């Protein structure tokens, strides 16, 4: 019997057995209508399920998808290629829609899709900048955290304490808080730690003097002490000249005159950092929407619009640096991470998904009265700052009896100071410093204040630690807390989720402190919040504990730090490269490998006081700890040999030589003028160096001759032909294998390639890796090689940069550390290659087998010249130093020279010269080659690899420049740094008539492009002949042209180094680099 017949019979039976309806409208009640019979319902469900299909999907991928979701849903995310959601929907559509399982799965699917997007959105287009007063951080509650709003109350106090039952604040101070003896901070923190803490508190708290319920600054870490608390105060510190800059060494916060000068010195660092950022933003001009300010008329509204965009973007980036210091130095120190050598940091910025959903971020913040009281850390004041404060109070109150200062006297003094405060921030000074004509303070003055603070140990937290000079300030704090009606200490602990104290001894086990508190408050539940926080037992120094403040305070600080950052949309949802630019976004990131365990303050100090800190100075790298504490920490970590513990002295400003005559005098006198890169070359050559750093002919000349003869560069025309052919074939090979073909509907097929990264750089890498060092490259022809071509390029690039580039101190540690690692790899490859050609080396069978397996053959290209080297009987170590030195000096710099020549002649203004180079590239006769080399040398003259080279004087001298009427003689003293400005010398019209015209027939008395003098380029002829072959191959391509922008534009900008033009580049990550990035070209087949 079919299901339809059964259903019909059951339905007839059901209908016939029904009673008449009793409702007046003649209809049955819903409940009666639904009782269709159990059997009938079951059959209907069976029919429906058969129609829908089997809900059990018999496919291993289904299980795999569910497992992936269980493991990764809240971490890396679900792999949608495993089809979990689609399989889930298939199961759902096959279930009975009225079943509980179906409803639950449906709800899960809808919730998952809905929660994939934020509701409501956390950020909007057009709101990418901070308001001056902190408003609109939360777009839905624009006043949340805005300056001028009332303080929040975090904990409603419920403990009834009659006012007359409260102890006298002065008595509380005298018995619980007043310093009896000086005790240094157990973690070795310097006073600069708490100078920075003052910047945080003054960013968050500014109680209105007429209404203490109002906070006149924002509730965000927006550097309001620097930028101001509203638009009026912000305008007062801005130049508004189209560059987005602040006035030099100017900050908005007038209250800092009442704080030790190290606080103001730190703000000057952030001022300089803002202006550094703004200058870079305008120079890089990432989105090409800004113009040089010289192109604007004085009253052009576009000038102010440009200034506003640059200023606000720089402010975002500078606040990003501030935030990085908070976590990389401040919080890291609190957790004791620096002491243990850990560069770990909490990450409160990114999305966090738990089983309960997403943890909110970018939703705003609003500071409370409880934290206003918590952040008053007067006990940590150093002896130096205590003396400074005493002198200030004595000058203001005309007395040394600080206990005699009452509320009335203090109020009158504050009003007097406020009345006479300088309203123009440009005219405010501090610590007796004098502004220079440009408005800035001297670098050495700022550095001295900071270094004094580094050397000054902070004091410990806790009971009986606050200097007596601050008695009236502490009394005011307690009075303020009582007027606000804040909670008790135990209520605050309950709010934080901490156990409430059962006794005063549990709060502080010191019997004197506990007894004094009991005498004042009688019961632990009546202990006020302010003295409770300040006099609580301190956390001991140990793992996870470096601040050593009270337990309650520590828990609250960490929670507040997370909330301040995670709640700020400009540190979370709006903290993006789109808003900060790619360069700016990278610039304010912490670097955990910077030699300071991720310190972010070190970057700012070394960047903005470059003459005052060496790259490894502990004063710059570990400024939040005293030198003694830092030395002890590094001693435990066995790292002391890598650091400089002496107080930094200001380095001399280089003296610039700008003529051929003057440069020749310096570079041909290795007795008086030494190369500055000896230590770096020694670092990379295992201490042996090589002839490029030997300043005595006895060491220099034999090694130079050995290298040039082994390479065949010494009177060997056949070798020159071989090298020219090698570079020609390598260039042709990379053009063929690295380019790809494309065609348009109307036109011939064309090819497209990154001429720098994939052709020029790779040609140079193969020279250094294959022909010089024996570094095994992983290529299509050698798939078992050890390093890719890009990896090898990066290693040689880092090695060259470390030795020859004048790298800023802020990048010095990372560069040297990375270069050391790269050198160990390259040196090992060289040593093995040298051992393979040593006479009777007896290379073990296993090692020989491995070499053959990796390289596909026993013989390496480098073996030929290495056999010549080993004939010298020098040690493997000495020869390795020579080889790596040559490889470093003939690889990436060669590629850079070639890249800049190509880019130079592809510029529209040199179209005529390009056409002539194209013609010459089709010819191979001697005259054509001579002219081609002439064009190359002219491009190198006008677009040199580097602006100049330096030497260090070790004896007195007078440098005689050409044309003394324009270039006076330069007096030199031992220790002076001499910068030889190649670019200025090679564009001097007295030595190069019509200097900016390309003239391939220009007579060259000396080939200055490649360096001159004692350490001139040993392979000059080799470089010119091989480079001409590379250029010939590239410019012989049919209809060679730049690709469409931006790919066809070599991204970079001109800057100035000691008055000398230097071209810098933007790498693929948006960072600034001296090395050319990508340049795509195309040509017809």
From TrEMBL:
CDD domains, per the entry: CYP_LDS-like_C (cd20612), linoleate_diol_synthase_like (cd09817)
GO molecular function: dioxygenase activity; heme binding; iron ion binding; monooxygenase activity; oxidoreductase activity, acting on paired donors, with incorporation or reduction of molecular oxygen; peroxidase activity
Keyword Protein transport among record annotations: no
Protein name: Heme peroxidase
Database matches in InterPro entries: Cyt_P450_sf, Haem_peroxidase_animal, Haem_peroxidase_sf, Haem_peroxidase_sf_animal, Oxylipin_biosynth_metab, Ppo-like_N
Cited Pfam families: An_peroxidase
Residue ranges the record marks as coiled coil: none
Binding site for heme b: 378
Domain of life: Eukaryota
GO biological process: fatty acid metabolic process; response to oxidative stress
The species this protein was found in: Sistotremastrum niveocremeum HHB9708
PROSITE patterns: PEROXIDASE_3 (PS50292)
Keywords: Dioxygenase, Heme, Iron, Metal-binding, Oxidoreductase, Peroxidase
SUPFAM superfamilies registered for this protein in UniProt: Cytochrome P450 (SSF48264), Heme-dependent peroxidases (SSF48113)
């Amino acid at each position: 019997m079919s299901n339809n017949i059964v259903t019909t019979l059951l339905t007839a039976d059901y209908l016939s057995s029904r009673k008449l309806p009793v409702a007046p409208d003649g209809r049955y009640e819903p409940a009666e209508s639904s009782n269709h019979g159990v059997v009938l319902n079951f059959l209907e469900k069976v029919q429906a399920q058969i129609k829908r299909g089997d809900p059990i999907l018999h496919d291993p991928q289904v299980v795999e998808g569910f497992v992936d979701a269980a493991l990764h849903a809240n971490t890396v995310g679900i792999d949608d290629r495993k089809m979990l959601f689609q399989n889930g929907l298939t199961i759902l559509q096959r279930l009975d829609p009225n079943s509980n399982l179906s409803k639950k799965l449906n709800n899960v699917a809808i919730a998952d899709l809905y929660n994939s997007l934020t509701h409501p959105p956390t950020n909007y287009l057009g709101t990418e900048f901070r308001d001056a007063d902190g408003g609109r951080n939360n777009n839905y509650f624009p006043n949340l955290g805005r300056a001028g709003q009332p303080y929040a109350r975090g904990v409603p106090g419920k403990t009834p304490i009659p006012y007359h039952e409260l102890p006298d604040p002065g008595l509380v101070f005298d018995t619980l808080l007043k310093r009896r003896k000086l005790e240094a901070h157990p973690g070795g923190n310097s006073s600069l730690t708490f100078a920075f803490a003052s910047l945080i508190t003054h960013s968050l708290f500014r109680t209105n003097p007429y209404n203490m319920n109002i906070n006149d600054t924002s509730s965000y870490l927006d550097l309001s002490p620097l930028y101001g608390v509203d638009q009026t105060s912000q305008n007062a510190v801005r130049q508004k000249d189209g560059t987005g800059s602040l006035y030099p060494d100017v900050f908005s916060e007038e209250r800092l005159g009442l704080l030790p000068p190290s606080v103001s010195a730190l703000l000057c660092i952030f001022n300089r950092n803002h202006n550094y950022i703004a200058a870079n933003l305008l120079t890089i001009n990432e989105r090409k929407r800004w113009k040089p300010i010289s192109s604007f008329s004085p009253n052009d509204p576009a000038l102010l619009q440009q200034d506003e965009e640059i200023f606000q973007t720089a402010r975002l980036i500078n606040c990003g640096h501030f935030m990085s210091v908070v976590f990389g130095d401040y919080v890291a120190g609190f957790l004791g991470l620096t002491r243990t050598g850990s560069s770990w940091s909490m990450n409160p910025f990114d999305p966090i998904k738990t089983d309960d959903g997403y943890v909110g971020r970018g939703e705003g913040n609003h500071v409370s009265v409880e934290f206003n009281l918590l952040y008053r850390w007067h006990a940590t004041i150093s002896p130096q700052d205590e003396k400074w404060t005493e002198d200030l109070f004595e000058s203001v109150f005309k007395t040394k009896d600080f206990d005699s200062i009452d509320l009335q006297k203090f109020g009158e003094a504050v009003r007097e100071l406020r009345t006479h405060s300088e309203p123009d921030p440009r005219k405010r000074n501090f610590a007796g410093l004098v502004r220079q004509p440009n408005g800035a303070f001297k670098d050495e003055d700022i550095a001295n204040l900071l270094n004094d603070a580094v050397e000054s140990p902070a004091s410990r937290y806790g009971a009986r630690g606050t200097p007596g000079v601050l008695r009236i300030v502490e009394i005011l704090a307690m009075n303020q807390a009582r007027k606000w009606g804040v909670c008790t200490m135990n209520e605050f602990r309950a709010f934080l989720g901490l156990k409430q104290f059962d006794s005063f001894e549990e709060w502080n086990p010191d019997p004197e402190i506990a007894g004094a508190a009991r005498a004042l408050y009688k019961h632990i539940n009546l202990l006020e919040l302010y003295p409770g926080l300040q006099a609580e037992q301190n956390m001991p120094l140990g793992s996870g504990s470096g601040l050593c403040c009270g337990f309650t305070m520590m828990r609250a600080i960490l929670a507040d730090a997370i909330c301040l950052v995670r709640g700020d949309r400009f540190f979370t949802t709006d903290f993006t490269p789109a808003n900060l630019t790619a360069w700016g976004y990278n610039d304010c990131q912490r670097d955990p490998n910077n030699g300071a365990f991720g310190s972010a303050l070190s970057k700012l100090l070394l960047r903005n006081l470059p003459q005052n800190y060496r790259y490894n100075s502990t004063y710059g790298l570990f400024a939040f700890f005293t030198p003694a504490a830092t030395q002890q920490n590094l001693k435990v970590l066995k790292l002391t040999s890598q650091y400089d513990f002496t107080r930094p002295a200001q380095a001399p400003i280089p003296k610039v030589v700008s003529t051929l005559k003057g440069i020749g005098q310096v570079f041909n006198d290795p007795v008086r003028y030494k190369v500055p890169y000896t230590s770096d070359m020694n670092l990379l050559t295992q201490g042996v160096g090589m002839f490029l750093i030997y300043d005595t002919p006895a060491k220099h000349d034999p090694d130079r001759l050995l290298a040039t003869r082994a390479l065949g560069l010494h009177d060997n025309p056949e070798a020159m032909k071989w090298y020219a052919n090698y570079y020609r074939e390598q260039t042709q090979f990379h053009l063929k294998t690295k380019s790809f073909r494309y065609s348009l509907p109307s036109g011939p097929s064309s090819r497209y390639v990154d001429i720098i990264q994939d052709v020029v750089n790779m040609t140079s890498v193969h020279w250094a890796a294959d022909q010089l060092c024996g570094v095994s490259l992983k290529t299509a022809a050698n798939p078992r090689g050890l390093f890719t071509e890009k990896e090898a390029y990066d290693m040689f690039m880092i090695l060259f940069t470390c030795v020859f580039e004048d790298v800023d101190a802020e990048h010095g540690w990372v560069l040297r550390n990375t270069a050391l690692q790269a050198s160990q790899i390259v040196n090992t490859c060289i040593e093995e290659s040298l051992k393979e050609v040593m006479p009777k080396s007896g290379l073990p069978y296993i090692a020989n087998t491995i070499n053959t397996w990796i390289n596909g053959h026993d013989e390496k290209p480098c073996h030929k010249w290495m056999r010549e080297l080993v004939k010298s009987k020098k040690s493997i170590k000495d020869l390795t130093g020579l080889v790596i030195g040559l490889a470093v000096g003939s690889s990436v710099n060669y590629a850079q020279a070639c890249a800049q020549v190509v880019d130079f002649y592809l510029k529209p203004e040199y179209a005529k010269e390009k056409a002539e180079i194209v013609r010459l590239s089709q010819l191979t006769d001697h005259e054509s080659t001579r002219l081609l080399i002439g064009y190359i040398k002219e491009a190198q003259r006008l677009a040199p690899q580097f602006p100049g080279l330096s030497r260090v004087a070790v004896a007195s001298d007078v440098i005689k420049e050409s044309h003394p009427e324009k270039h006076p003689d330069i007096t030199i003293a031992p220790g002076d740094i001499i910068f030889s400005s190649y670019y200025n010398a090679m564009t001097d019209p007295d030595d190069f008539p019509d200097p900016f015209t390309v003239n391939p027939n220009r007579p060259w008395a000396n080939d200055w492009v490649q360096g001159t003098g004692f350490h001139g380029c040993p392979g000059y002829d080799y470089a010119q002949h091989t480079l001409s072959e590379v250029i010939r191959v590239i410019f012989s391509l049919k209809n060679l042209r730049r690709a469409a922008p931006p790919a066809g534009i070599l991204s970079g900008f001109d800057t100035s180094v000691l008055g000398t033009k230097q071209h810098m580049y933007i790498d693929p990550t948006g960072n600034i680099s001296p090395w050319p990035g990508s340049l795509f070209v195309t040509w017809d087949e």
